[in-house]
Write a structure and sequence with these properties.
alpha/beta; 39% helix; binds NADPH dihydro-nicotinamide-adenine-dinucleotide phosphate
């Protein structure tokens, strides 16, 4: 039996962390005929993912808090000649089992299938010591980042299971693998997301074709990054668009059989949050 001190923590932490296969090139029609739901599709990485999935043939369901932002993404996708998306304005803060069920019924009626689910929406919450963290704020972050993802996954699972090779992708962070001072509920929520991904992947492995993975985008030029690092020059960080090959890989057939892994979209030295 290993003593506590003999565990190689670096190796332990890296055990399930993967990166995009070298030289990966998504085919133009990678996601043709597929229906993919993206949460937080109105801004940042979710917006880039929705546009990129649509550009590769998917019918995208745009779920997010601010209707105007979703409409803008809708217009961009339609103007580019890609399949017409479905807009689902929804504040995940208030998602309940009943509203999640109603959303599933809408998808079933409108589109009849679901092949992919990208859990991308998240709240940063407060950057403050645990000792001072507002309990209400803590609960909001856990609701949006973890509980809503659990509810959506649970209610959408039967539809995803009917797909030829369904894919669920969670969004994690480096502070969801190693805690860091002042990241509070956000860090804890991302640890929970990693745990949910691993637990679900293990449950589904033998009984369905649905694969379950997580992506840590790494420091990316978005509104959330600017809020977390106000002193940083955003131009020093990669754009959300530049990360899309990994998102496409995990949503398309090229990743068939790959399940239970946490992926890094950027090399480790630049993944700060
Ligand atoms: P942004 O803040 O730019 O975008 C987040 C999106 O989530 C927005 O569209 C927002 O909608 C939506 N959202 C937030 N709260 C809710 C809610 N209650 N209900 C519905 N939608 C909601 O974030 P990023 O694009 O930077 O982040 C995307 C993911 O990547 C997150 O999971 C984040 O934790 C993760 N990540 C990001 C990193 C980075 O450096 N950017 C690093 C590591 C991880 P609206 O605009 O309407 O408020």
């Amino acid at each position: 039996k290993k003593s506590y001190k003999s565990i190689d923590w670096t190796e332990f932490q890296m055990k399930n962390i993967k990166t995009l296969p070298a030289g990966y090139q998504p085919s133009e029609k990678l996601l043709e005929e597929r229906v993919i739901l993206v949460t937080g599709a109105g801004d940042g990485i979710g917006r880039a993912a929705a546009r990129s999935f649509a550009a590769h043939g998917a019918t995208v369901i745009l779920l997010g808090k601010t209707q105007g932002k979703l409409e803008q993404v809708y217009d961009e996708i339609v103007a580019a000649g890609h399949p017409e998306p479905l807009i689902l304005p929804l504040d995940l803060q208030y998602l309940t089992p009943d509203s999640a069920k109603a959303l599933t019924e809408t998808i079933e009626q409108e589109l009849g299938r679901l092949d992919g689910l990208l859990h991308n929406a998240a709240l940063l919450g407060s950057v403050t010591p645990v000792a001072n963290y507002s309990p209400e704020r803590w609960q909001q972050v856990m609701q949006v980042n973890v509980h809503a993802a659990f509810l959506l996954t649970q209610t959408l699972l039967p539809l995803l299971t009917q797909a030829p090779d369904g894919s669920i992708v969670f969004t994690t962070s480096s502070v969801g693998r190693q805690g860091r001072a002042f990241w509070g509920a956000y860090a804890v929520s991302k640890f929970a997301v990693e745990g949910l991904m691993e637990t679900l992947a293990d449950e589904l492995e033998e009984v369905t074709a649905v694969r379950v993975n997580a992506i840590n985008p790494g420091a990316t030029r978005t509104r959330m990054r600017a809020a977390a690092y106000p002193g940083e020059n955003p131009a020093t960080r990669p754009t959300a668009d530049s990360l899309m090959p990994l998102y496409l890989y995990l949503m398309g057939t090229d990743s068939e059989g790959v399940s239970g892994y946490s992926f890094d979209a950027q090399p480790p030295l630049t993944t700060q949050a």
